[in-house]
Amino acid sequence: MASITINHVAARAGVSIKTVSRVLNREAHVQERTREKVLEAVAALGYRPNLAARALASSRAYLIGLYYDNPAASYVSDLQFGAMETCRQNGYHIIVEDLADGQGSQKNDLDSLLATVSLDGVILTPPVCDRLDVLDRLDQRRLPYVRIAPAAHFERGPRVHMDDRRAAYDMTGHLLSLGHRRIGFIKGHLEHSATPLRHQGYLDAMADAGIAVNPNWVQPGNFSFRSGFGAAERLLGLPERPTAVFASNDDMALAVMAVVNRLGLSAPRDVSVAGFDDAPIAQVVWPQLTTIRQPVTQMGAVAAEILIKGLPDPSRQDVLLDFKLIVRGSTGPAPGA
What we know:
Elements: H1 6-13, H2 17-24, H3 32-45, H4 51-56, E1 63-68, H5 73-89, E2 93-98, H6 106-116, E3 121-124, H7 132-140, E4 145-148, E5 159-162, H8 164-177, E6 183-186, H9 194-208, E7 218-219, H10 225-236, E8 244-247, H11 250-262, E9 272-274, E10 291-293, H12 296-309, E11 318-321, E12 324-326
Parallel strand pairs: 1-2, 1-3, 3-4, 4-5, 5-11, 6-7, 6-8, 8-9
Antiparallel strand pairs: 10-12
C-alpha cells in the first residue's frame, strides 16, 4: 500500500494542500468547519506528517531538547513525560540528553549536540539550568530556552518553578505537629537549586518552633538512594537518634526506610519518614510515603508550551506552580507523644 501523503488528505477533505498545511501547523484564521474536515481526513487516512518535510516548509524544526544532569531518574522521567505530552499535542518531538559534567567535557558535549540537530528550543533542568557556560552557548546561538527551577540569574530566560522553601517548611511543620522535636534532615545535590531552599525551609520551621537544630541532625546527600542510605545510617546511629527524618527527595527517603528496617525498627512507630517529589514508588512501598507532591510533570508541560507558543508573552516569563503535602502511613506521632 502506497504511503499516505498530504495530497491524499487534501483530496479527501476537499481543500487545498496549503490549507491542510495550515491546519497541521495549527495556524490561526482557519475556519473551524474546515479544520474539522481536515482533521477528520487525517484520522481516517492515518496520515502522519513527515517531520523533515514540515521543517523544510517552515522555519521550525519541530524539535525541543531537554537537557538534564540529575541522579534522580523519576524526576527526569516525569519532566520528560510532561514535555512529551505537550509536544505530541502540538506536532513536535522531544530529544532528551544527559549533560553530565563528570569529566569536564560538558562544553564539547553541548557543542556537539547543538551541531548535530536543529532545535526550536531547549528545556534546562537543574543543575544544568544554572550553568552559565550552558546559558552563554545557547544565547550565542540565539536558541530559546526555558529554565526549570533555577537558583539565580532569573533575568536569563523564562523559568518554571515551585516554592521549595515553603514546601519544606510545611513538611517540617507536619512532623512538628505530630510531636517530633528531634527531626533529621538529608540535603540534596549540592548544585541543585532546590537543595538550599529545602534546607532553609526545614531550618525556618524548626526555628519558628523554638527548636535549636543539632548540626548532626543535618546530613549531606545527592538525591540518590545510596547517598540517602549513608545519611540514614549516620542519623540513626546517633546516641539520641531523631524520631523523624525528612529527606530532600523520595529516593533518599526510601533509603531511610531501608535502614530503619535493617536496624529492626519500624516506621512510623519508632521513626517517622518523609520525602519530597511524590515519585510513583512512594505509593508502592509499605508504609506508603508521606511526601511533597511537586508538579514535575506540569513543569515539563508548561516549559514545552512556552517554547512552542513563543517566548515574548510576559505572563509566561516566571511561572510559579503549586505543591501539595501528601500525608501517608510513613509518618505518625513521636514516640511518647
